[in-house]
Design brief:
Length: 337
């Protein structure tokens, strides 16, 4: 908070802090983060002592709140609106100097705020730098659209991601890692207006590509499981995907349905998504083997079968004591690597 603010500006700034205080305490409750109440947090008019206490309280909370906690809270809480996102974004942009954690939080807040502002039917071709800059002008300021050389590779990464036809192809091509490298190597240049706009656009488009591929993956698995059930298959060997050796097809189908409902993850190539891509391979191989039958013929109609569609764990390069997968939203909400 600027000590040179007028009383009116100071009062407005204080009201913003009261809004943020409610958001921060909500995060603290959800993740059991220990924090002391700010003594003057309920007051409408700040005192000098209250300003100092608030400054120290917010700084201490920022040190304790991790980006994955911020992400999960802001994506799942019904109380989060555009104003809370804007105030959080402004707060982290105004920090000096910025840490890597500040950059990661800003990186998420930018795309989350823009996603809230963007119309649902916004086409990818409409989402150019000028469009994003106009939407974010109240937080990033005026933008010089001269793209520095170090940002130029972002467009190539977007094109490579667009060309991917599956999550597995996206991960194997290490497309997401290229974007992360640019962010990690940008230093303070990340916080220039043109870079903020460019990365907000990049994250928004990559997120769309990611979720389109993710939903295609789930639909493919769901349809494959339905077809296996129709052919009489009741269990699958799913050790490759960290399920059991005799996993009921019905349970797998229920898990796929829960994924459609619960999947709020920020794009990442973490373990839950590897499970998703591995499960698709298991189902596809099971369908192929089911078509051939044990002797190369199709199985008799209605005859229950067990399909071993996974290689032994050691041959697949997996630990033999891989934990059983549980249906839980927390497994589907994980950090970017």
């Amino acid at each position: 908070m600027n000590a040179n603010l007028s009383p009116e500006e100071l009062a407005a700034e204080w009201r913003n802090w009261l809004v943020l205080y409610r958001a921060y305490t909500g995060i603290a409750r959800e993740f059991s983060i220990e924090s002391q109440a700010c003594p003057e947090s309920a007051g409408e008019q700040p005192t000098d002592a209250g300003v100092q206490q608030a400054r120290h309280w917010f700084d201490a909370m920022d040190q304790q709140i991790h980006v994955y906690q911020l992400r999960q809270f802001l994506q799942t809480s019904a109380s989060v609106d555009d104003e809370i996102l804007r105030l959080l974004l402004v707060r982290h942009l105004e920090k000096q100097p910025h840490s890597s954690a500040d950059r990661d939080k800003v990186d998420f807040l930018l795309v989350q705020y823009f996603s809230h502002l963007a119309p649902v039917r916004l086409e990818d071709v409409e989402c150019d730098l000028a469009y994003v800059a106009q939407a974010l002008e109240n937080v990033v300021g005026a933008v010089n659209f001269s793209i520095p050389d170090w940002l130029a590779p972002l467009e190539q990464v977007i094109e490579s991601a667009t060309a991917c036809s599956s999550l597995n192809e996206l991960f194997r091509g290490r497309v997401l890692e290229e974007g992360r490298k640019l962010k990690a190597n940008s230093g303070e240049d990340y916080f220039t207006p043109i870079a903020l706009v460019a990365f907000a656009r990049f994250n928004f488009l990559i997120r769309r590509i990611f979720f389109r591929l993710m939903h295609d993956e789930i639909n493919c698995i769901h349809d494959g499981l339905h077809e296996l059930e129709r052919r009489g298959t009741r269990v699958l060997d799913c050790r490759r995907a960290h399920f059991s050796r005799n996993e009921p097809v019905e349970r797998l189908r229920m898990i796929c349905h829960s994924w459609k409902v619960m999947f709020h993850a920020e794009y990442s190539s973490g373990q839950p998504l590897k499970i998703l891509t591995d499960l698709r391979m298991v189902v596809q191989e099971a369908l192929s083997r089911s078509e051939r039958g044990p002797l190369g013929n199709k199985p008799a109609s209605g005859q229950p079968t067990q399909v071993n569609a996974a290689k032994p764990a050691s041959a697949a390069g997996m630990a033999t004591n891989a934990p059983e997968f549980e249906i839980a939203a927390t497994l589907l909400q994980h950090q970017e690597e």
